[in-house]
What does this fold into?
Amino acid sequence: MIGRIVEVADDRRHLFVSRGFLVVQETEGERKELGQVPLDDITAVIANAHGLSYTNNLLVALAERGAPFVLCTSNHNAVGMLWPIDGNHQQGKRFDAQLAATKPTHKRLWADIVRSKLLQQAAALEAAGAPVAPLSALAGKVRSGDPDNLEAQGARRYWGLLFGSEFRRDPNGDGLNALLNYGYTVYRAATARAVVAAGLHPTLGLHHSNEGNPMRLVDDLMEPFRPMVDLLVWQLQQKKESRVSPDTKRALVRSLYDDMQTDSGATPAMVCMQRLAVSLAQVYLGERDKLDLPLPGLPVFLAGSLSDD
It folds into this structure.
């Protein structure tokens, strides 16, 4: 299913449920209604302001539909997420298979994800007119478990090639870093929904092992999709757009609906996330051997005005 990412970025807003709709209302003055969105159309809600209020009924309704409610800091990083505990009718069976997966299986799967990420980074560099050989070469050298940490080696080369030698990726930074943060938050929410819908536990990861991270599997599976955000941020920069704004936010959210290349043809990125999560559950259950990962090649997003709807 391709749904809508709903972001609330203005203070003095109240969110509640009415007759199957999420309703946004002002909290001052006449408390007028600002808009409605059908609950069944929502993929995730991103709370990106600090003066919000919302009802428990809304959180329950979102959880029943498998739509995460994401809490953000001032630099647009996700710091919390409410997700459902009932995501799939085979959830218990899939949890058991996930827990029983062997270390060699996880190492093999992680190598596939790292290889896919490096190839997608190379595709982003190609679209930006930058050299691709450094990343393509690393992709061909990835071994089970990535013991040489080629993912990190690729990142060190990639950021300078894409944004210039002066750029440093800093999750606490402003400008381009804040744009990257926002895009990753959107993609993380969409990946989280895909993981839960596939009946997998988001904390039981393949590689990420931070004990304080309850979304380790989500962060594992979104790695091949990060270059979608990176390329769009590069393109925004080319249009002299280097800050988080309503227009740049819309552009980043819309990229979820842009096509990636797959074995079955062009497929929206959000659907690719869903297929990847389902394929991982099938690998755990012994129903298939490989992950359903997107093929190398990223779309060119910005054909027109940023403010186009």
Notes: Residues 4-67 form a domain with the Ribosomal Protein L15; Chain: K; domain 2 fold (CATH 3.100.10.20). The chain has two domains: 4-67, 91-284. The CA atoms of residues 251 and 306 lie 7 Å apart. The chain has a mean pLDDT of 90.
